[in-house]
Amino acid sequence: MTNRRSLLIGGLAAPLAGCAGRGASPAARVVVIGGGFAGASAAGTLRQLAPEVDVTLIEPNPVYTACPFSNLVIAGERRLDAQQFSYQNLKAAGINLVQQRATDVDPATRQVVLENRQVIAYDKLIMAPGIDFQWTIPGLSAGNADRMPHAWRAGAQTVLLRDQLRGMRPGGTFVMSIPEAPYRCPPGPYERASLIAHYLKQHNPKAKVLLLDGKDQFSKMSLFRAAWTTLYGDMVEWQGAADGARVVEVDAGNRTLHTDFESVSADVASVIPPQRAAAIAERAGVADASGWCPIEPRTFASMLQDNVHVIGDAAIANAMPKSAFAANAQAKLCALQVVKALNSETPVTSKLINTCYSLAAPDYGISVAGVYAPGDRAWLDVEGAGGVSPLDADIAVRRAEAGYAEDWFTTITREVFG
Ligand SMILES: Cc1cc2nc3c(=O)[nH]c(=O)nc-3n(C[C@H](O)[C@H](O)[C@H](O)COP(=O)(O)OP(=O)(O)OC[C@H]3O[C@@H](n4cnc5c(N)ncnc54)[C@H](O)[C@@H]3O)c2cc1C
To answer: Which domain holds residue 162?
Structure first.
């Protein structure tokens, strides 16, 4: 009982009395698509809550490369392998690991088709495939993205952007294009700008960081802007949609970005494309016209297909940001609701918590925390709960928050991947 209870404390506010495991059919098959923060958490939680359930995790990559803290890799402050986690502990826990890409889902027959044409049947399916990019900016494509690395999926692009910054000419300009919401990790671009400025301040002090944003407000805006002035003087310049800064076209070959207002030449550029749920969500019929997946808030059950749940970045969780913290919290609640459904029990109603830490420098942390409640149609902010780091905190507080950020990453990756 202790283990089950403590397992859920991180993001789930409801107690677990009376849940899980009892009486679930020994033959019940739960399939999870995607082994990221959401899917791996869901698979592990299912295993712990209901060992009698047959849990299969479908993930094409043998190793998961985490995005949180990957901006430190770009800034040369961390190695990529510190971001990488194997699935072996999940396998050792008794989860069937299938190293394949799911290419189709048929909710009518409750079957998942894999790239190797194998078919896997399920009683309940949890989809956690994360995001795909929308190549809607004229001039930008999957084929030329290496010229302007988004690095919004950690791995090769992260290292590429790091190396392009290392090779940037003295006094050069780094330009980043930031999409309109929703996209994964709302504060991520601003953390990236900060850590790149930190790198440039040491290695290329006359360089500039220019942010071209598709919106006028962003997460922890006052805190980031104050930190940029304090830490980097006038090195970082942010322009929003009202300044005409939305990028409408790029010339990847020449590293030129065109906005409504002007054309900007970059020495190094990072263009973060607009996003949607990963392609398999559309194949499964769980994504709507927005490209994201509508869910019944309390259980994460798809609004569009029976016996399918969607969690993590792919889901429309309204007030909850698309973060690893939220993905992990959603996964634990969703796993519990799936076990309850298998046991023909009533779902619980639980609030969820999210905290997003960001680094304005490796030893300068800021955070925003929220508490969310499931309404009839949407996840809603709990007014008055949560909060944001104070604007006037001293450097000791910022240093402490950077430490909390690291502790959070260590804890969550240990919990999810073992
Ligand atoms: C630069 C950056 C910094 C970030 N920093 C933070 C942070 O500090 N804190 C925080 O909480 N969040 C942070 N995030 C956000 C966080 O990374 C995401 O919100 C989180 O990874 C979402 O988890 P997920 O499981 O939904 O998706 P993912 O982690 O993307 O996992 C999806 C998995 O599904 C698999 N998959 C996709 N399609 C298929 C298919 N067809 N078949 C089988 N498998 C499939 C993929 O291979 C992948 O492993 C950051 C993101 C970025 C880009």
So the answer is: 137-273
